[in-house]
Q: What sequence folds into this?
């Protein structure tokens, strides 16, 4: 048996499972002790990517989660889905999850990813894909983090180029003492540019 | 062989293309019936993100391979939890009907009395010392998963007057690519609480609600032991190709 159904209007496809919120108790199910460790602490170029999750009233969100997925410093993924083959630095997971703390803060230990081919002959600037989930989010939000000090690469990046300047600025993580920082704003002034993919 | 600076030579790649999700599948971010959306939904429309290498790849979490006890939530403590023992099983598929093998499935849920083992949950229903309500497993080569757990209870919340969440189990899924990531909730058949639940109401297509409700499964029900439920999860598949003939259809001006 199966609980799947054909899609109305396109019987070649199965109907997709709808999203639901993670709710307020996500931390019991989704906390990993090593969640924020995307790269080994002693990896060359290891840095901390951190920030706060902020709501439409300007308050920090203490019950949210950010997940990131990115290439290693050479621009490679540990994923068989990569048509160039799976290849990543040993100890580099590429994936991290960080549940926000009481102050709405998240952090990841990672490395700056390498530039990536866009598949069509161009290059994408170093970037990190981000999923945001929280109580009150019925579906995930998707955004990207770029690095403010990669000015030349950012200027040539097709995704950044497709955005209005104000939206582009919301994706640029600024250098800090130990890495980079960027707040994610769910709503209102300074609202982060979110994507449909 | 010539060496070329990386910047000048970007390889042409054939990238898998995932379908775009039809508008009526997922709930909208702005849904007034669920109060917590009010300050947390973006006001701007989302921008389009082309699917490139980062989007079509995803984490391999094989080194997190859970133990058998992780998939049996009734055996994680010294004693057995109170409640109706159930088996929840099914397959993780993509919308083209292909199995998604070796993918991490995480679940969390309330206990039989509808209480989560979480500091924020303070309603007067007891915590069960023998139930954490957390499980994980990986799918097999056919995309199958299987958990043994306790039927979760309904519980009150403050969203609207006399609000109660229908019994549910939270599911977290990765698929094979960043595009396929999904967190959702599985419900049980014939629950009278659906009619007042904004999470259920937020799903645009009523047929979508049916996709979140498990089927009572007598075949999986274990005699003298546990009731069975089956629930399949469908993640995004390949971009749909146009129907045969559609390309050649002639239209009058």
A:
């Amino acid at each position: 048996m199966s609980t799947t159904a054909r899609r109305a209007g396109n019987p070649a496809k199965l109907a997709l499972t709808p999203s639901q919120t993670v709710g307020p108790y996500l931390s019991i199910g989704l906390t990993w002790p090593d969640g924020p460790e995307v790269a080994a602490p002693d990896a060359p170029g290891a840095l901390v990517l951190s920030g706060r999750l902020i709501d439409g009233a300007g308050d920090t969100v203490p019950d949210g989660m950010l997940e990131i997925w990115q290439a290693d410093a050479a621009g490679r993924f540990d994923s068989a889905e990569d048509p160039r083959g799976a290849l990543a630095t040993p100890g580099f997971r590429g994936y991290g999850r960080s549940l926000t703390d009481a102050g709405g803060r998240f952090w990841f230990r990672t490395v700056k990813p390498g530039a990536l081919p866009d598949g069509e002959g161009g290059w994408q600037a170093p970037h990190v894909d981000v999923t945001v989930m929280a109580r009150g989010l019925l579906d995930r939000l998707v955004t990207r983090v770029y690095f403010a000090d990669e000015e030349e690469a950012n200027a040539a990046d097709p995704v950044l180029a497709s955005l209005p300047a104000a939206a582009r600025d919301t994706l640029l993580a600024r250098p800090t003492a130990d890495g980079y920082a960027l707040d994610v704003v769910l709503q209102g002034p300074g609202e982060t540019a979110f994507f449909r993919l | 062989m010539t060496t070329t600076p990386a910047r000048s030579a970007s390889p042409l790649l054939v990238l898998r293309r995932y379908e775009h999700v039809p508008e009526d599948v997922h709930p909208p971010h702005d849904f007034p019936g669920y109060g917590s959306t009010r300050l947390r939904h973006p006001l701007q429309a989302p921008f389009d993100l082309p699917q490139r290498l980062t989007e079509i790849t995803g984490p391999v979490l094989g080194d997190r391979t859970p133990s058998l006890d992780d998939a049996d939530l009734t055996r994680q403590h010294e004693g057995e939890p109170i409640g109706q023992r159930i088996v929840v099983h099914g397959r993780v598929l993509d919308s083209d009907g292909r199995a998604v093998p070796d993918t991490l499935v995480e679940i969390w849920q309330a206990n039989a009395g509808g209480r989560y083992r979480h500091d924020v949950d303070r309603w007067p229903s007891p915590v069960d010392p023998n139930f954490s309500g957390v499980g994980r497993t990986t799918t097999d080569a056919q995309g199958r998963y299987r958990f043994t757990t306790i039927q979760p209870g309904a519980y009150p919340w403050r969203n609207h007057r006399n609000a109660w969440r229908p019994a549910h189990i939270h599911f977290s899924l990765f698929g094979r690519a960043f595009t396929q990531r999904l967190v959702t909730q599985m419900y049980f058949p014939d629950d009278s609480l659906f009619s007042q639940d904004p999470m259920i109401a937020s799903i645009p297509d009523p047929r979508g609600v049916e996709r979140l409700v498990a089927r009572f499964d007598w075949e999986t029900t274990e005699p003298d032991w546990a009731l069975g439920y089956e629930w399949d999860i469908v993640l995004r598949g390949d971009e749909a190709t146009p129907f045969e003939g559609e390309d050649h259809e002639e239209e009058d001006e």
